[in-house]
Design brief:
Length: 142
């Protein structure tokens, strides 16, 4: 029976890339095309459940956040914090001036003195606990 076989002499090096290309095309088509595969992978990555550190924890109990939600909420929080710090830096001179003006007034001095006295009231009874709370309240005009 082997006498009837014909040897075409096709090199495996020639056949292998053709077969691989056909397999890749078939797999891509099976998943709906390259765009669909990319879309599914990106969607899965965005909605991957992670822990508070943005890592997939071995315990699914700790994986309570969408990766996308966690990353972007951290970025937004950081941007807001940075902006607030910049605003405080730019306004610190005005805040300082206003605070000094308030403290130099009789009402401001009285508020500071009252706060200090309230804080010191319990100091001798409880030497481990002492608290001073200063509240600057603008006067209301009737």
């Amino acid at each position: 029976m082997t006498d009837n076989m014909i040897n075409l002499g096709i090199s495996p090096d020639l056949v292998k890339p053709i077969v691989e290309k056909q397999i890749k095309a078939a797999v891509t088509e099976m998943f709906g095309g390259a765009d669909e595969i990319i879309n599914k992978v990106v969607t899965a990555m965005i909605h991957q459940k992670v822990d508070i550190n943005g890592k997939v924890n071995s315990s699914s109990y700790n994986n309570t956040y969408d990766w996308f939600e966690l990353v972007f909420s951290k970025q937004i929080k950081e941007a807001v914090e940075n902006e607030l710090k910049e605003q405080m830096k730019s306004m610190s001179a005005a805040i300082r001036k206003s605070l000094i003006k308030k403290l130099r007034s009789e009402q401001g001095a009285n508020l500071v003195a009252d706060a200090l006295l309230r804080g010191l009231e319990g100091t001798f009874e409880h030497s481990w606990s002492s608290e001073i709370d200063v509240k600057l309240i603008a006067p209301t005009r009737d």
